TrEMBL record:
Residues 13-341 form the FAD/NAD(P)-binding domain. Its main location: mitochondrion. Residues 391-455 form the External alternative NADH-ubiquinone oxidoreductase-like C-terminal domain. The lineage of its organism: Eukaryota, Fungi, Dikarya, Ascomycota, Saccharomycotina. The keyword Flavoprotein applies. The keyword Mitochondrion applies. It is an enzyme of class 1 (oxidoreductase). GO terms for cellular component: mitochondrion. Keywords: FAD, Flavoprotein, Mitochondrion, NAD, Oxidoreductase, Transit peptide. It is found in: Mitochondrion. It catalyses: a ubiquinone + NADH + H(+) = a ubiquinol + NAD(+); a quinone + NADH + H(+) = a quinol + NAD(+). Its EC number is 1.6.5.9. One of its GO terms (molecular function) is NADH dehydrogenase (quinone) (non-electrogenic) activity. It comes from Kluyveromyces lactis (strain ATCC 8585 / CBS 2359 / DSM 70799 / NBRC 1267 / NRRL Y-1140 / WM37). This is NADH:ubiquinone reductase (non-electrogenic).
Length: 458
């Protein structure tokens, strides 16, 4: 893309960090011919996270929920340059980003200059510094996590099958523990129990009967963001499905075979063969480095932004969206990241107009013309409205082909639960898929599981 526009004005460089819900939604909507657009992300694909909990047990295939970055950038109106790299350090004064290659056997580090920067690097799983979690637990955030969980499930089953029925090691290997009763933990525990009941029970009935799924939650109930009637429904269903839900139980320590949890005054040791840790988000290193450079960034929860998505302390050149940010009342969800990206698309369109007017003003010598341009500029600046989040509801799969939904229609809220809600959940997620290709693949995966069951190999 030429460095200047036809009128001679410079084309500003927009660097976008990340290829998740925020950044990809922005790239899909933005007129990329307005900027020199550079995307930096260690992941050369978009991942449809809402269906990630379905992948370790094979309800949905991983390939069905990813979309290559190239197919997204290729359909943009302007040229987009992509680096498969990680942003290591952002210098908000010099306006540079240091990036480090993430491509195998291709090491490089370089500094990219930017006029404008969009930070959409997401977050990493939090462990609250609990000893042993990083070393021993699996997380459920990215594709390699889902693959790791699947391998562990299959290995444990095969190992357990070689041990005698009364061997305590067999019991430990078949103890599958999920920590965190938020939607990630609940959806994964539900998928796991489905797999045991619907598929393993046919192929290896003796082992399937011994598998124990446990969900550990520190608070008095699971799924806190849902209405009481819905989390109660989910807890009742889990009890019926024999998922052991341990409430008011906070994990304090983890070693390679056992978690130690506090429940009131009592301490409980829970042996595990598989431990999936889903206790929420923490900022990434690159976000922490940036926070350390700006006095205004004094939150531990994420990058502080204003209601225009501008980063506090670097309002003129950096916007931040999605899970890497913290703004009261906005939760780290795909829905929020997507709406923020839509808002930012409009902002960047306005910013282009502002830059064009500023350039025209700098070239104009006629006082009347200059004054007209200034009033036009003022009008555009005043048009910029703050971001307003429109919450449409929250959905979660809870197993046995049932789902719960807290739907918001205007000011009113509606709660739904059961099998019909599961169909609603399915159609909503199909609708949310990024591409037609994803939609078809996911629908085919569901059909395959319905008719043929899930696969039981690694
Ligand atoms: P992400 O989507 O996480 O994207 C971050 C991007 O930044 C990635 O491409 C990553 O590779 C890249 N990156 C990381 N580090 C760097 C770096 N140093 N430099 C450059 N790039 C970097 N929300 C819902 O609303 N509904 C759901 O049903 C739902 N289900 C979920 C299920 C699971 C299992 C999980 C984990 C989350 C779910 N969420 C859901 C939450 C939702 O996925 C997040 O809120 C959303 O992904 C946030 O978008 P984001 O763009 O901020 O971050
Ligand atoms: P979360 O923050 O929603 O829930 C984490 C849970 O872990 C909390 O209930 C917390 O009390 C519990 N916990 C924390 N420390 C613990 C400990 N030591 N021992 C036992 N329990 C402990 O995290 P999440 O489920 O990973 O979700 C992250 C974000 O992604 C949330 O904003 C969520 O809304 C979003 N998400 C949404 C969906 C959906 O809409 N269906 C699905 C997945 C994730």
């Amino acid at each position: 893309q030429a460095a200047t526009f036809a009128n001679g004005s410079p084309r500003k460089t927009l660097v976008v960090l990340g290829t998740g819900w925020g950044s990809v939604s922005l790239l899909k909507h933005l007129d990329t011919s307005l900027y020199n657009v550079i995307v930096v992300s260690p992941r050369n694909y978009f991942l449809f996270t809402p269906l990630l909990p379905s992948t370790p047990v094979g309800t949905v295939e991983l390939k069905s929920i990813v979309e290559p970055v190239r197919s997204i950038t290729r359909s943009s109106p302007g040229e987009v340059h992509y680096y498969e790299a990680e942003a290591k350090d952002i210098d908000p004064v010099a306006k540079t980003v240091r990036i480090k290659s993430a491509t195998k056997d291709h090491d490089y580090e370089l500094d990219l200059n930017y006029d404008y920067l969009v930070v959409g690097v997401g977050a990493q799983p939090t462990t609250f510094g609990i000893p042993g979690v990083f070393e021993n637990a699996s997380f459920l955030k990215e594709i390699p996590d889902a693959q790791d969980i699947r391998t562990k499930i299959m290995n444990n089953i095969e190992k357990a099958a070689t041990l005698s029925a009364n061997d305590p090691e067999r019991k430990r290997l078949l103890s599958f523990v999920v920590v965190g009763g938020g939607p990630t933990g609940v959806e994964f525990a539900a998928e796991l129990q489905d797999y045991v009941d619907q598929d393993l029970s046919k192929w290896i009935p003796e082992i399937s009967k011994e598998i124990k799924v446990t969900l550990v939650e520190a608070l008095p109930n699971i799924l806190n963001m849902f209405d009481k009637s819905l989390w109660q429904y989910a807890q009742d269903l889990f009890a019926m499905e024999k998922i052991d839900v341990k409430l008011k139980t906070m994990v304090k320590n983890v070693n390679s075979t056992t978690i130690t949890a506090q429940c009131g005054d009592a301490t409980e040791d829970i042996p595990y063969g598989l431990l999936v840790w889903a206790t929420g988000n923490a900022p990434r290193e690159v976000s922490k480095n940036l926070m350390a450079k700006l006095e205004q960034q004094n939150s531990r929860r994420g990058l502080l932004i204003n209601d225009k998505m501008q980063l506090l302390g670097a309002e003129d050149s950096i916007w931040a969206i999605g899970d890497c940010t913290f703004f009261p009342g906005l939760f780290p969800t795909a829905q929020v990241a997507h709406q923020e990206a839509e808002y930012l698309t409009e902002t960047l369109k306005q910013q282009y107009k502002i830059d064009q007017l500023k350039w025209e003003i700098s070239k104009t010598t006629n006082a009347t013309e200059t004054s007209k341009l200034h009033s036009k500029l003022d009008r555009i600046v005043k048009q910029q409205k703050p971001f307003k989040y429109n919450h449409q509801g929250t959905l979660a799969y809870i197993g046995s082909e049932q789902a719960i939904a807290d739907v918001a229609v205007g000011e009113s809220k509606y709660q739904m639960a059961g099998s019909f809600t599961f169909l609603f959940w399915k159609s909503a997620y199909l609708g949310m898929c990024l591409s037609f290709r994803n939609r078809i693949l996911v629908a085919m995966d569901w059909a395959k599981v319905y008719f043929l069951g899930r696969d039981s190999s690694v």
